[in-house]
Amino acid sequence: MFNPRAIRSALESLAGKICNTRKGLYVINYSTCFKRCFSRTSSNDNRSRDTLENHNEPGLKSPFKLWWAKEITPDIHVAGRLTARQIKYAEEGGFQSIVSLFTHESQKRLGDDVLPSTEEISKMINTLCNLQFKTVLGTEKRESWNPKAAVDELEHILPGLKKPILLFSETSQAAAFVTLMYIAKQTRVNSDFETPLNSERFYRIGASLGMDFTSDFYKKIVSEVTGEPIVHIPSAPNAEPRSWIKYWQAYPVYRNWFTAGQMIKPTFPVVEEAGFSSIVNFRAGVTFSENPSQEEVTLLNIKESTGTYGTEINKPRQNPERLKETRIDPLKSNLYISKDSDKNYESRNDDEFGDDVGYNETMERDYFKQYGKFQYLHLPVAINKPITTEVYARHRDRLLQIGRKGPVLVHCIKARRAGLLSILAAAEHYDKDLAWALRRSRELGYEVSEEKSPTVYEIYLNVLGRHGSTDV
After folding, report:
1. Contact assessment for residue 63 and residue 298, using Cβ atoms and an 8 Å cutoff
2. CA distances from 471 to 8, 398, 432, 445 (A)
3. CA-CA distance, 18 to 454, in Å (whole number)?
4. Alpha-helix residue ranges (DSSP H) falling in 381-453
5. Residue 374: what are its φ and ψ, rounded to 5°?
6. 247-289+359-464: which CATH number, 3.90.230.10, 1.10.357.140, 3.90.190.10, 3.40.50.970?
7. Which residues 6+ apart lie within 8 Å of 191 measured at CB?
8. So which domain of life are we looking at (predicted)?
């Protein structure tokens, strides 16, 4: 019978000896060797097993609607405090349970949007949604909350919840901390726990998420939960500015580079408060290469990716007949849309810059001009065509130029185009190499590799080569 620990130790020793004997000749990745030797599955299956640092593409079944839900594990995602629409989207996109870390006694505003109270959420879910709903802590006093008590309570309620679960807190940071500490606790009490988490790995994951858990308050709790000594100089996030977390929907890529899905009108004040100065939009315009090219908008109780324009078989997406055909749940009450709705589905989304056809980039451009607080740059990239070296070359100079001016938020409909090209731009901006870019793509859920995305991998290889720094 093989002894995995002994062989791993031997591989470590061998790697060290070779590197010391002929420095720079070979680099042995003993971790990769170890996994390949003992894995009974493919490398992709093996990668997906490390769910804490290599994520699935955001959004579950509806990436257009749920790009902002951040995966900690496939079973638990986190978010900031949710609007009623986001809760409905959570159900439509595949979540089975919603969990609020705190009890919110009253409504709050997020920009021009309304965040319902815990009681309002409970009533809405009970009457309109097929979701389970729980709260972890019976208090709204976040300044004096007890994360260890939250971990214990989460451990208590999880077995009774259907998965996947969306856990939310004010800005998602507390929700992420409690989820990771829950995993760390399971690691300590169960040696066979499938996603082990120690202190060092916890801080690395937190930094990857752009979340700062390096205060003495957090460090003490991490030590108590893991049973390990306090890490005095832990990995810290490099996201700039730190205030980005106010717009928690964004994904930090590196330093001043961030990515997101479609922005909506009500959150513009929040994006401004978070410190962003420039916005880049990769979505197609009303026309692309002189052809109609409007993308979809998200609509309540309507499936996504059904195609904006009509075909010989189907009518256009926002045609009333087509909308009825593409309802997610034909039995939903009209109240699901609004108190005054005469139908149980949405036919237009003004907040997403939608018109009677679909997403209208001209409307978004005009709104940015009217708002007057951001530099706005439209660099259209077709949604249904491969991203190529030529596409990046066409936009590269303008993208890097705007990135050098300060915090930049790059968006498309579900953050994929924005994410892939932001990683590449950030790598060029800060002299990162191919290994760094590939790792960051896995962490953000877009996994660029020769096998999974050969076209994008070729772009990364052509642009980045083998030079640069692999530092986080």
Report:
1. no
2. 25, 26, 8, 19
3. 32
4. 389-403, 416-429, 434-444
5. -125, 150
6. 3.90.190.10
7. none
8. Eukaryota
CA-to-CA separations, 14 to 9, 26, 29, 144, 321, in angstroms, rounded: 9, 11, 10, 50, 67
Domain range 63-237, its CATH number among 3.10.20.310, 3.10.129.10, 3.30.110.30, 3.90.190.10: 3.90.190.10
More confident site: 46 or 420 = 420
CB count within 10 Å of CB 224 equals 14
Please state the pTM of the whole predicted model.
Answer: 0.88
Helix count and strand count (H, E) for the chain: 17, 14
Beta strands in 163-232 (DSSP E): 165-168
| β-strands 76-79, 165-168 pairing | parallel
User: How far apart are the C-alpha atoms of 427 and 82, rounded to whole Å?
Assistant: 33
For the stretch 161-215, pLDDT in tens is 999 999 999 999 999 999 999 999 999 998 888 889 999 999 999 999 999 999 9
